[in-house]
Amino acid sequence: MVFILYPNVKKEKIDSFISGWEQKGFSTILSIGTEHTAVCLIGNTAEVDLDHAVQTSEIVSYGKRITEQYKAVNRTVHEDNTIIRVGGVSVGEGYFTVISGPCSVESEEQILEIALSVQKSDAKILRGGAFKPRSSPYAFQGRQAQGLEMLKTVKRKTGLPIVSEIMNQTQIELFEEIDIVQIGARNMQNFDLLKEVGKLKKPVLLKRGLANTIDELLMSAEYIVSAGNGQVILCERGIRTFETMTRNTLDLSAVVLLKQKTHLPVIADPSHASGIRSLVPPLAKAALAVGADGIMVETHNNPAKALCDGAQSLDLNQFENLMDELKIRAAVEKKEI
Amino acid sequence: MVFILYPNVKKEKIDSFISGWEQKGFSTILSIGTEHTAVCLIGNTAEVDLDHAVQTSEIVSYGKRITEQYKAVNRTVHEDNTIIRVGGVSVGEGYFTVISGPCSVESEEQILEIALSVQKSDAKILRGGAFKPRSSPYAFQGRQAQGLEMLKTVKRKTGLPIVSEIMNQTQIELFEEIDIVQIGARNMQNFDLLKEVGKLKKPVLLKRGLANTIDELLMSAEYIVSAGNGQVILCERGIRTFETMTRNTLDLSAVVLLKQKTHLPVIADPSHASGIRSLVPPLAKAALAVGADGIMVETHNNPAKALCDGAQSLDLNQFENLMDELKIRAAVEKKEI
Amino acid sequence: MVFILYPNVKKEKIDSFISGWEQKGFSTILSIGTEHTAVCLIGNTAEVDLDHAVQTSEIVSYGKRITEQYKAVNRTVHEDNTIIRVGGVSVGEGYFTVISGPCSVESEEQILEIALSVQKSDAKILRGGAFKPRSSPYAFQGRQAQGLEMLKTVKRKTGLPIVSEIMNQTQIELFEEIDIVQIGARNMQNFDLLKEVGKLKKPVLLKRGLANTIDELLMSAEYIVSAGNGQVILCERGIRTFETMTRNTLDLSAVVLLKQKTHLPVIADPSHASGIRSLVPPLAKAALAVGADGIMVETHNNPAKALCDGAQSLDLNQFENLMDELKIRAAVEKKEI
Amino acid sequence: MVFILYPNVKKEKIDSFISGWEQKGFSTILSIGTEHTAVCLIGNTAEVDLDHAVQTSEIVSYGKRITEQYKAVNRTVHEDNTIIRVGGVSVGEGYFTVISGPCSVESEEQILEIALSVQKSDAKILRGGAFKPRSSPYAFQGRQAQGLEMLKTVKRKTGLPIVSEIMNQTQIELFEEIDIVQIGARNMQNFDLLKEVGKLKKPVLLKRGLANTIDELLMSAEYIVSAGNGQVILCERGIRTFETMTRNTLDLSAVVLLKQKTHLPVIADPSHASGIRSLVPPLAKAALAVGADGIMVETHNNPAKALCDGAQSLDLNQFENLMDELKIRAAVEKKEI
Predict the structure, then answer these.
(1) Which structural domain range is residue C59 located in?
(2) Which residues of D touch A134 (CB under 8 A)?
(3) Closest alpha carbon to B147 in B169, B162, B125
């Protein structure tokens, strides 16, 4: 249940309204937007008389019931698009932010060369995996803490904000200087980890799980936002289906639906979705056309020798060409790239 | 196994080459393109010595083995894009052909009003279901033969080529004046029907089955082409996955892969894929961006009262707006709409 | 909406009750069981006042609304288990009927040898494909009409009832002496074919489609039963999922649910479900344990040389051993094998 | 690559053989079985000359290459079935061990009542969730550490070994007195958690992820076993498919395949797989018939008031009846219940 307040209600009145509900055993979410301020009740609202609640409050314009289980991330509660600012970069409606870099940080030289190149091509955020979730214990597990150090060095040299994947909650301190913490697809329902990153004061990039529904993705985001961290970027990265020619099936309908249902930014990852280099540029363009707020694309200075996911990585030239194509199309979509 | 011939080989020499292989028990496919002419062998080619076969023929430039089970539709055998011409309209590389109309023909007035409107918005082909495959025997089964008559009348009045779905092989005569025969998703592996439409001299629109792989779609197309009818348009229309928020999951990666693997035109159907009106325009733009040769979009003059699939139908204004958006983007993609 | 009648109502009264509803525009299904007789209305029953309808009829004991779209196959309408009798064999509750034979009829010798052997092991019905639906046009398409002749010969020699797959409605006359007509998974939603076999006076074995829900299977059965043929055997044969180690995923929960929701017999096909010989015996035992009314198992006198599906076929010894194992377990389940 | 040693080779010779390979950069797994002792190499074995390696060692009987990525859990490396002993209970080949208890520990009274009842019915291990992974942050999250205390109390009173789910690696100390640590489906690829439980000296119950393949499950088990903990019980608990009538689709073929590919015990969870009480008994019997080494079944003293998953919980009578049915069938399968 959400109450939309009249404009310009004084803070004390809102506080008093909220504490009234909290005394009755409800939790609340306060959402302050440019158009309106809303208070959302969490708890057994089935027994609340909506009309009576609206009529007996002098600060409530109107109220409505929310059938979805996600509240704080729900566009019904919070109409304004959330724009996330990180290191001078914006992610959200009106922008098409390109995150690029290698699957895995391999060496300082490698990540620096890639960073300088993708920066020149107008990628705005650098990605690089330090801790790598791998199906086999015998596969390359990433450069770990050392990899994070390499990323920080490159951040200092280039000024690019950094995103890297966290694998468990004991690593949180290691990520202190990492600008965006990524929750990978396999951890989308690692609820304890979600609660921990919900305490951070930095953006979280939350990837959709391989077999998770759109609703489940939104509820995982709700774990983070309801824990206090409103800076969540959602990422569609392909779902597992019966088709085996691609690694996963990129679900671009999900991007549209997510943009309808939540105010959070939504990006797509055509690299992990397809697993095939030649599919990345057309799917990237499709993600832009469908309304995504950005993409995450794997690039490598030498894909043939990549320690991880070389087959889906663009080389630096291919990435530059893709960016040229995207810029023309972003102009048509009236998005800043 | 495919043999690429030298340029300008005389017909008699090709015939003699082919009959030589057929005497050894192979079937053959002759593919004449602008760049090269190719002869493809069907049968147990594992035992053929490729090098010897190339060296001992005076007309063969080179040969290669084809691992895929589809041959006639394989781009390796036939490099040139197939452009299908129907009633003055082209479908294939360089074009973005929009097919529009109602899910179901309801009355002559209905289909005429829709046809005139979508034609004005630059749709090039009219769709309309006369025989409707419905999960329940108690659901509206379409206007049947009468529906086809209405379509023909509207075709005469507007000049628009018509596409409508055939449900079984006994209906073939009824479709004589229908320009394009559609094989629906549920019939994609109705192999006897595929063989029958393979004998026709008109284009076939073949939709991907709900749970069929890209390879299976290509093999179903091979049934038609190998039976003599090279005019096949493939259509990605969403696959069945665990996600329930959309009716199906539109697999745009499949469009890219199909364009790589076959020379046949490939279109997308965002209406059936999503089942949700508000998703149709963004998915249509994504289909264009990803490289599809066209789309099939359901429109209705009164979606709220449609006898079938109203929830996914655009009204005539919405369709006009979509076409305006597509025209701007088709120019960027250098495609004629 | 279904009306349960009082016991021993005279036929004229029932006829008059039915014709009353038909005059109001409803279709009806009359279901006569051992426990009760029911009349089910088809049509827009939302506008019917159920209480009023019950109270104003002297023959109706009580009525209830049916939310499912399937009516004639619905256990709510028809409580008694349907037992299908064919050539002295029973299929349905209380029996565990084993259908066995090769994927494909190859020669009279082959099918006769297999038939005699599986009969000795107490298989009660012989299967053999004459028309084979194959993904590739270049794969073995079956012995066709000739294959049916071989089956008929073997039927005369052994007395075993025969089941074979029909691929389209023009073949119906060819199946005149075939005891059970099989609708394959790819044709489960070939609605015109369903309507045609609905006119037959012989059992139909309806296989679940690779990506069809339990509800859709029941609605396809409804096409046949509502067309007049109540002798339908449902077959769970594996669904298409992301798992690739098996050909499909046998869904034994579906067997339980189908038995709850419909009065029709339900069998399982562990051969096509798994595609792996060593999985067939354990899955067959599981099908018995879960409550299936039988199984269809592929056997071959020489699996290594089978023209089709050899990898999933049991040899004749393996089948005999499986039958020995099943007999012990059928006794525990109190089922006649 | 695995080397099977001659019988009765002295320990020093084996150690020397192993250290020889480790000096060349390989990791090794030593597997000591009743029939044979094997040494498995991990690393780039493609460059090892197998024949030469066998011929030049005096302790190697023969060797073979292993194509699978899992080694320590591979039956090729370790032929003998692993039987896990916990609190006097055995899990593995020859046994059909029933684990039972509520989805969630609610109170000491609740868990004690259930424990005493299921123990009387011959369940051998008690389950009870203390930390509950829930899709929504607003759903009941379990009694947490307090719940574990309740379980320990009940363990002392009944003597039943306890299994409960761990959600992250910081909880490991809390589980000290819990007999079996469960890794839930959502954590199957939480690789850091797998490594941590790999250091424990107690059994781990590893559930298959909703969208994880059989191969991926085996590789997750390999994470635990290769980290030093060989006591892993695998659990098939249903996969996510397009079918919505059941919560998930129980994949009993996976049980058979797992038993073929690994020496670890394999059980099934019909409660979470189906989500429907009436399906649990037939699926439990099917799991026994297919060859599972046990089941995990949710029971509750008052399912209608359960805080979690009541719809799939058996009441205590239903569980007793199920156990009676299972005992008869376990005798047929020559398994100790």
Answers:
(1) 2-64
(2) 191
(3) B162
